[in-house]
Amino acid sequence: PQAPVWTLLPAVSSVHICRPAQLAEMMAPSAGETTVVIPFLEDDLAACPPSVKALIPDAQALGICRDKRRFSAFMWASDLGHLHPRQFSTTGDIHFPLMLKRCDLSAGHGVRKISSTVELHDALTLDPWAGHPVILQEYVSGGPDYVTHAVCVRGEWAWSATFEFDSLIWPRCD
User: Fold this and answer.
1) d(CA 148, CA 132)
2) What is the rounded CA–CA span in Å between residue 149 and residue 74?
3) Which residue(s) pair with 102 in the sheet?
4) 159 phi, psi to nearest 5 deg
């Protein structure tokens, strides 16, 4: 709520952080105010009721962002594959180390660095990977990782912020 971005938007009178279950109590604005919800996590985006004024992507974009397989396919189909780690087939030519990722989790959950075939087979029998779709991607070592959050209105950038994460602590590996 104290982020500098809100001072750039004079119409914003207050900012609150809440989970989707708390939306009902947050949706009663004072006279002359409008409440707008800006969900940041995929689960929060999906849980946002359609009656709420919110900055959310359409269902197709949300589906792509929530599934690492679909996101990888989107990157390659959009000629952005060179910016994305190489993906291995679970039966094809695999190079270690690699990253095992559960397709439907985010924020570093369900991510593990794998160093051998034995370790991969063992991990696939454990929570959170057992019985769930996964992808195998090349391990990319090196400098910091970046994430950019952006708001676009009718295809034009309205706001963005980029954050740097130390690759030693991000993503959190299970």
Assistant:
1) 28
2) 18
3) 134
4) -165, 150
Residue range 78-134, pLDDT digits in tens: 999 998 888 898 667 889 999 999 999 987 889 999 999 999 999 999 999 999 999
Partners of residue 160 on adjacent β-strands: 150
**Could you tell me if 101 and 69 are in contact, meaning their C-beta atoms sit under 8 angstroms apart?**
no
Helix crossing, 68-77 with 59-66: angle to 10°?
110
d(CA 131, CA 6): 43
Per DSSP, 4 falls in state G
Report how far residue 147's alpha carbon sits from residue 81's, in angstroms, rounded to the nearest whole number.
17
134 SS3 class = strand
| DSSP strands (E only) in the chain | 87-88, 98-102, 111-114, 134-138, 145-153, 156-165
Interval 128-152: pLDDT, tens:
999 999 999 999 887 777 778 777 7
DSSP 8-state code for residue 96:
S
35 SS3 class: coil
Looking at 10-126, list the stretches that DSSP marks H as alpha helix, in order from N- to C-terminal side.
23-26, 42-47, 59-66, 68-77, 117-123
Measure the CA–CA gap between 51 and 58, rounded to whole angstroms.
14
- Give the amino acid at 132: H
Instruction: Record the pTM.
Output: 0.71
